[in-house]
TrEMBL record:
Name of the protein in question: AB hydrolase-1 domain-containing protein
Taxonomic source organism: Talaromyces rugulosus
Domain AB hydrolase-1, first and last residues per copy: 7-241
SUPFAM superfamilies: alpha/beta-Hydrolases (SSF53474)
Coiled-coil ranges from the UniProt annotation: none
Taxonomic lineage: Eukaryota, Fungi, Dikarya, Ascomycota, Pezizomycotina
Pfam family name, one: Abhydrolase_6
Length: 249
């Protein structure tokens, strides 16, 4: 009998994983177990100097699952894809099987996320310069979005986008400079969800990462006609895409 699977959700910068709650509720109705990660870099008392704190907290959630013999589908949004990839090292299903250990990460689901290679960072992927909508503090420790509605929620109602903006928290800017040392998508079966109306990570950038950075690797793709926040604007479509991954695994 195959091990049970838990779906672990990792948000992007500025966001709480509570943004996935409607998706999680949908998946729960069909019997899927879920877990969600609160990133150390979002709204911290002291800003992080790199993504290590995020890697650690994501890895702790994965370890708790695999130590219980569970398989893991890791769903990562935006910035969350970078520390998520790093956190998987040594915890993928095949490696754990070779070590006679149960459970492991069986799939990585990128939701309009950053898919980068070793030696690269989010900052280098975006051309090595701040984006126009980055509002960075003078000490270069904190970053906030200056135009969150237009950048993240451009396909949502005014009321819904206002509620979403109210939930955002400051992000540790230096995490954007942390370089990836492990590209999990080279080892773990992966799916990339293209978001066609994304103004934060434009579809051209999403496709470049999948078609160029990950060229030669079998990255499955799906697409939704949605902004950078499909968990708000098309939660049922996102849940369906994740459900297909779990069924196939």
């Amino acid at each position: 009998m195959a091990p049970a699977t838990v779906i672990i959700f990792v948000p992007g910068a500025w966001h709480s994983p509570d943004c996935f709650d409607t998706v999680i509720e949908n998946l729960g109705k069909s019997g899927h177990s879920t877990d969600k990660v609160y990133l150390a870099s979002v709204g911290p008392q002291t800003h992080l100097s790199g993504f290590g704190g995020d890697v650690e907290v994501i890895r702790s959630h994965i370890l708790r699952a695999v130590d219980a013999g569970l398989n893991v589908v890791l769903v990562a949004h935006s910035y969350g894809g970078i520390p998520s990839s790093e956190a998987i090292k040594g915890l993928d299903y095949e490696t754990r099987q070779k070590n006679s250990e149960q459970g492991g990460v069986v799939h990585l689901f990128f939701c309009c996320s950053f898919l980068i290679d070793e030696g690269h960072s989010l900052f280098s992927t975006m051309g090595g310069r701040d984006l126009p909508w980055y509002d960075v503090t003078q000490d270069r420790l904190e970053v906030n979005p200056s135009t969150p509605v237009e950048t993240f929620y451009n396909d949502m109602s005014d009321d819904a986008s206002c509620r979403a903006v109210a939930q955002l928290r400051p992000h540790s800017y230096q995490t954007f400079y942390s370089k990836c040392t492990y590209a999990a998508w080279k080892v773990v079966p992966s799916t990339y969800l293209y978001c066609l109306k994304d103004a934060a990570v434009p579809i051209s950038v999403q496709k470049t990462m999948v078609e160029n950075t990950a060229s030669g690797y079998p990255i499955r793709t799906e697409k939704v006609d949605a902004s950078h926040s499909p968990f708000f604007s098309v939660p049922n479509r996102l849940a369906d895409a994740i459900r297909r991954v779990v069924v196939e695994e």
